[in-house]
Design a protein that fits this description.
By secondary structure, this protein is an alpha+beta fold. The chain folds into two domains: 96 residues; 167 residues, Thrombin, subunit H, CATH 2.40.10. Helices cover 32% and strands 28% of the residues. It has two helices and 14 strands. A hairpin with a 5-residue loop joins β6 and β7. The chain is elongated and about 100 Å long.
Length: 271
Amino acid sequence: MLLSLVLITVYFREPAGGGLHSVQSTGATVLRPFEVGANRIAAPFRDSYGWFAGLIHAKSENARLRAQLDKLRTEAIQNVNAAQQLDELRRQVKYVGLPQFPRDYRPVPTDVISASAREFQQQVGIAAGSSSGIRRNDPVVTADGLVGKVSSVAGHTAQVTLLTDANIDVSAIDVGTQAAGLVSHGEGPSTLTLDRVLKSQVLREGDTIVTQGFKVGPLTSIYPYGIPIGTVSGATNSEVDLYWNAQVSPFVHFDSLRSVIVLVPKKRNQP
């Protein structure tokens, strides 16, 4: 060990052309063919090991994915059967329920032709009106989720009040936990809050929020159940609060609307 320390010390202190450097260079030159040969001999074994290891991993992953696919296929079949049985039971008992989204609505796609310049009154104009069957309070959506409702109608145009407007409240529900509350505008533009959710209910960050839909006597919700609104981006409560303090990140980008879809009920009561 002492000799090794001495040789290392001398090696680092001597110039590049010193004796120890020359010995190292000569040794490396002599041993290089053996190193190359050893690498060439070992390469097929390394490649074979890697191939077999990858094959075993691929088979294991394939088996896992097949099991997952079989489980999902079974669940899908069960869901279809359950839906068919539910429809049959509803027909047998002449069940009267809320309008179903989107089955009970006729979509009217249209362009956004104007936007409001007022900060606290979030509205846009659309290129379809009463001539297309649109009426006041018809829900408005995009492929992403809820936009708002029709607030005024002309023959060939209409005005839509956005969900971010201070005058709109929407009954909403957490898809996962069934916690119910009201979605309204947030503190900033294109932000939403979820209010009136009791602390006894469960609310988790990342949960999906959709329209709740309700019917109380003659009153029916403007928005049918199941229209996506957004995800819970934050939820807190304290001992003195009765409700959750929650924020919702909307699915719809309200500041870049180019087109919308008005939902016209198929079974609308004629005036």
